[in-house]
Write a structure and sequence with these properties.
mainly alpha
Length: about 190
């Protein structure tokens, strides 16, 4: 049985989207303009690619790599989810998506796989934050590499993702709540 078989299709989709959601939370914390967004998107993609193709990859990262090289999923299978009304809502939805992905991996995969997955997510967060200067003029002059909003979301992500060692354990045994499906922002 492959590692992928330990997850339902919906769960696997959440695991596959975890790294993108990690980067998305950083981007949403402090949007950087067009050139900054391009740099941040490139940082997300490059970090994921490096993580899943590195020499120390685990069976989980190998399965993620295989799916990334395969046929992309149908957009309908990804689900529309709840539409965000603001960048703060985008950040919150991405943080919840990361929380769900980390919980799934930690509850269904080996400790080594979970540690490697968390490390990948942490690298994505850090590299995304470092990819573009924030709060500068339109040429990026006078800005800072990581502003306070990004520092705040990086701290939130570190808490959600957890430590980088394989002894990390969750303080709860039930999955994080799924975002509401009725668009109200409340779980019914």
């Amino acid at each position: 049985m492959s590692i992928r078989d330990q997850f339902t299709q919906e769960e696997w989709t959440k695991v596959m989207l975890g790294a993108g959601r990690t980067g998305g939370a950083v981007v949403a914390a402090s949007p950087s303009g067009v050139t900054g967004l391009v740099a941040e998107a490139q940082a997300i993609a490059k970090t994921i690619r490096e993580s899943v193709s590195g020499a120390a990859r685990t069976p989980l990262l190998e399965a993620i790599a295989a799916d990334l090289l395969g046929t992309p999923p149908d957009a309908k299978s990804l689900g529309g989810g709840e539409r965000a009304g603001s960048m703060d809502e985008v950040r919150a939805q991405n943080l919840e998506g990361v929380r769900q992905a980390v919980w799934l991996v930690s509850s269904k995969a080996s400790p080594e796989d979970a540690a490697a997955y968390r490390q990948m997510l942490l690298h994505v967060a850090e590299r995304t934050a470092q990819a573009a200067k924030e709060d500068g003029n339109f040429l990026g002059m006078g800005g800072v590499q990581i502003n306070e909003k990004e520092k705040t979301v990086l701290d939130e992500l570190r808490r959600v993702i957890g430590g980088s060692d394989s002894t990390f354990s969750f303080s709860h045994e039930t999955p994080p709540s799924a975002p509401s499906t009725d668009g109200s922002g409340h779980n019914n």
